[in-house]
Amino acid sequence: MESLSDSDIMENVRDGQVEKLAILFERHHVKIFNFFLRLTGSHDLSEDLVQDVFIRILKYRSSYEGKGRFTVWMYRVARNVHVDHLRKNKGTYNLEDQFEEPESEEDSPMHALEQKKDKELIQKALSQLPVKKREALILSRFQDMKYKEIAELFGCREGTIKASIHRAVKQLGEIYLELQGGVPS
């Protein structure tokens, strides 16, 4: 099974071999979890949303056409799950722990405190971006998706995604500076 592509496995799932969805889950659940964690800031919610993604993949398996990359289709399902969640919950999230990473033993307590403050400011700044910009930025910078794949996912041109991500990074920097008490340029 390791040699089969994601698309091949998903085609098997679509054709009735639903037990093979476990292979796709093993390959992708961490990436999807991290995507949701960066969007929502909640470990518990992210776990729930990951489960919803794979339930929907199973439920809507017949709609998988095998065109393009499986990951693009999977992230489209994930985005839909997130949008549905936003609609149900009015988009209110606690963004604490959004970018939490284990602290290095080499870090001094002062350095760790500064890093934590920076992370909190970045989390607050990121949460102030519009959802579509936030999604594009997270997919590009944290999920390592190519601009072409993000464009396919969003249903637009690659140049549009490049410009959108560039504007999102600029806007994120401006918001971050404002939160620091600085003046944006």
Main CATH class of the largest domain: Mainly Alpha
Enumerate the spans where pLDDT stays under 50 for 5 or more consecutive residues.
93-107
> What would you call the structural class?
mainly alpha
Tally the beta strands. 0
- Distance linking N and C termini: 53 Å
How large is the count of helical segments? 8
- What is the gyration radius calculated from CA atoms? 18 Å
CATH architecture of the largest domain: Orthogonal Bundle
- The structural domain count equals 2
Gross morphology: globular
- SSE pattern, N- to C-terminal: HHHHHHHH
> So, the CATH homologous superfamily of the largest domain?
RNA polymerase sigma factor, region 2, helix turn helix motif
Beta-strand content estimate: under 5%
Q: What is the fold-level CATH name, i.e. the topology of the largest domain?
A: Rna Polymerase Sigma Factor, Chain: A
Summarize the biggest pleated sheet. Answer: none
Provide mean pLDDT, rounded: 82
- Helical amount: 55-70%
Q: Layout of helices and strands, plus pairs?
A:
Layout: H1 6-14, H2 21-40, H3 43-59, H4 70-89, H5 109-127, H6 131-141, H7 147-154, H8 158-180
Structure overview:
By secondary structure, this protein is mainly alpha-helical. The protein folds into two domains: 6-89, Orthogonal Bundle (Rna Polymerase Sigma Factor, Chain: A); 109-180, Arc Repressor Mutant, subunit A. The chain is built from eight helices and no strands. The protein is globular. The protein starts with 5 loop residues before the first helix and ends in a 5-residue tail after the last helix. The relative contact order is 0.11.
